[in-house]
Amino acid sequence: MSLSLPLPHLAEQYLLDPDIVFLNHGSFGAVPRPVFESYQHWQRELESNPVIFLGRRAPDLLAEAREKLGAFINASGNDLAFVPNATYGLNIVARSLKFEEGDEVLSTDHEYGAIDRAWRFNCEKAGARLVNRPIAVPVADPADVVEQIWAGVNERTKVIALSHITSPTALILPVAEICRRARAAGIHTVVDGAHAPGQLDLDMQKIGADFYCGNCHKWLSSARGSGFLYARPACQHLLEPLIVSHGWQSNTPGPSPFLDYFTWVGTVDPAAYLSVPAAIEFVQQNDWPAVRLACHQLLKESEERILALSGLPPISPESMWAQMRTTLLPGGIASYQRLWEDHRIVVPVNQQGGQAGVRISVQAYNSPAHLDKLIKALQAAASRSV
Predict the structure, then answer these.
(1) Per CATH, is 36-283 categorized as 3.40.50.620?
(2) Which CATH superfamily is domain 8-30+287-385 in?
(3) Would you call the peptide bond into 6 cis, given omega within 30 degrees of 0 as the criterion?
(4) What is the CA angle 290-293-297, rounded to 5?
C-alpha cells in the first residue's frame, strides 16, 4: 500500500510545536507520544526503587531490548551494545583499534565532523593518518562511488570508515560492497549509521561491517540518547572499554566481555534504551515502508521545484537518498541564513563545494504545506542574492 502526505493520524502523535515548520528530523529526531510515554514509564519505574531497578531489573530489561533491536536489524542481541549515540560508539572503535606509524584510515570528504575529529585524534597519537577521499558531486552512479573510494586503498590502509548515510549531503553510500571488498583484502570496516535506522531497512549480516554504530533517536524516533554499537563476533575482542568500570574483569561476567565492557559504565538512566522497543513497535504498527515512500515522494517533488529555481543538477540519482536530501541553491549561503528568524522554518543550510545547499528532512508529521512554505522562503532568499 502506498500513502501520500499529509498523514494527520501520525502527525498528531508527535509533540512538535504546530507553529513551526520542522524540516530537520535528521538533527535530533522527534519522539511520538507512545514512545515518549514508554520513556517516561521507565523513568518512573526507576524512581520508584532505584536500587532494585538498576541493580536487579535493568540487566534483563536491557537484554530484552537488545533482542528486539537485533531482530529489527538482523543481528544477535549479544552482538549489540546500547550507547548514548553513534559518536560515542564510534569513539569506542576508534580508540580501540591499534595503529602504527604510517598506517592509514580511509574515509571520505562527506563525513560528519565529530567523527572525522575522533579518527584524526586517535590516528595522530600513533603517527597514523586519516585520508578523506573526495567523492565528487553530482554522483552519477553508486558504482562510481565504490571505485572512487577503493582507489584510495593501498598497503597502508588498515581501516575503511564510512557513513551509511552522509550527514552533510544525505547520500546513501554503497557500504555493503565496500565492506565485502575490504573483508577480502583484510581491512577492517567501520560504518557510521547515525541516520540509517528507521530511514533504511537494515540487515547487519548483508552489510557485513566489522563495526556499525547507529542512532535510534533519529529516524527510528526513540527517546534521545539511544544508539547502538554492533560488533561482528570475530572482531569483538578488538574492542576495549571506553569507560573502565565494573564490566572490566567482572566478578559476575555476562554473555561476553563485549557486553560487560559497554553495559556497565557507571550509573546511567537506561530509560532511553528501554524506549527502543516501543519505537520499533510504533513504526511496525504504522506501515513504515509506506510512510517512508510517501515522505520520499514529497521530498522528490519539492526538490524538483527547488532545482527549477536555479537550474542546478541534483547531487545524486534518486536511488542514493531516502527521506533526507541535500539540494543545491542559487547564490551565496548568506542569503539563506534567516529561515528560522524570518519564517520559523527549522532546516540546515550549509556549503557544498562552495555552493549553498539545504538539507531537507521529511518525516511522517510533515505536509506539502510545510514544503510550500520552505520553497517560497527560498525563492525570496534567492531573489535577494541576485
Answers:
(1) no
(2) Aspartate Aminotransferase, domain 1 (3.90.1150.10)
(3) yes
(4) 140
Q: CA-CA distance, 164 to 256, in Å (whole number)?
A: 27
How far is Cα 185 from Cα 385, in angstroms, rounded to an integer?
Answer: 49
Give the CA distances from residue 157 to residues 6, 103, 149, 184, 361, in Å, rounded to whole numbers and listed in that order: 47, 6, 12, 13, 34
Domain residue ranges in the chain: 8-30+287-385, 36-283
Per residue in 98-128, is it b (16+ CB within 10 Å) or e — as a string?
ebeeebbbbbbebbbeebbebbbebbeeeeb
129: cell is: 593518518
pLDDT tens-digit readout, 248-306: 888 777 788 999 999 988 899 999 999 999 999 999 999 999 999 999 999 999 999 99
- In this prediction the pTM is 0.96
Strand order in the sheet with 129-133: 80-83, 227-231, 211-215, 188-193, 157-163, 104-108, 129-133
